[in-house]
Amino acid sequence: MILKKEFYERETVTVAKQLIGKTLTRKIQGTKMTGIIIETEAYRGKNDLASHAATNVTKRNKIMFGPVGMSYVYFTYGMYFMLNVVAKSKKQNAGAVLIRGIYPQDGIKIMIKNRGIKDVNKISNGPGKLTMAMNISMKENNIDLTKKLSVYISDGIIPKKINRLPRIGISKAIDKKWNFSINPKDYF
Predict the structure, then answer these.
(1) Mean pLDDT calculated for residue range 28-36
(2) For the chain, how many structural domains are there in total?
(3) Closest among 182, 8, 5, 184 to 94, alpha carbons compared
(4) Is residue 163 domain-resident?
(5) pLDDT score recorded for residue 91
(6) What percent of the residues of the chain are helix, what percent strand, and what percent coil, each to the nearest 5?
(7) How far apart are CA 75 and CA 140, in angstroms?
(8) Is 177 within a domain?
(9) Of the candidates 69, 72, 91, the residue with the CA atom closest to the CA atom of residue 81
(10) Contact at 8 Å (CB) between 48 and 12?
């Protein structure tokens, strides 16, 4: 079942943890690619200095301040798209969860072609890698992920143990253990 708005209308860190094990689906040109979400990171609003929403609303980050369940895609390092989903409680001004990694399930041959590599374990084990594998770009920005559109998230597996670590690749608020992951070898 596709996750509903209520799933995302909770504290961002809680949603980040509970997205682990869910299924990310990408439909494009009659083809469906899916993967189990194996890594996420939470980014809150004004009190999270590592977040795009730490200061003011901008053209880039305005989606983080809007309705929950929407995709927030941005371009970084001049070469990678990052897929996030807006998630925040009613008390929060902004928040989003970065989908950092998936374990491929369906459409693996297409993902291999999109990435140009054959190792299933390395096709989508990073945020830029997964968007390349699933052909996600700015066209998928501001899509309602609670509807069966070109990208959506649904139920998946129930993780046995979720790792909790500091977020990766940031220079501010590095003490926050808001990175959640599972080891795919324990499941696949």
Answers:
(1) 96
(2) 1
(3) 8
(4) no
(5) 95
(6) 20, 30, 50
(7) 12
(8) no
(9) 72
(10) no
- Can you give the residue range of the structural domain that contains 62? 5-156
Residue 35's SS3 state is: strand
Gyration radius from the chain CA atoms: 15
pLDDT of residue 188: 80
For range 61-87, the mean pLDDT: 96
1-21 pLDDT, tens digit per residue, is 999 999 999 999 999 999 999
* Residue 110 CB neighbour total at 10 angstroms: 19
47: domain CATH number?
3.10.300.10
* 42: phi then psi, degrees, rounded to nearest 5: -95, 140
Residue carrying structure tokens 């945020």: 127
Give the angle subtended at the CA of 163 by the CAs of 130 and 48, to the nearest 5°: 75
CB of 44 closer than 8 Å to CB of 51? yes
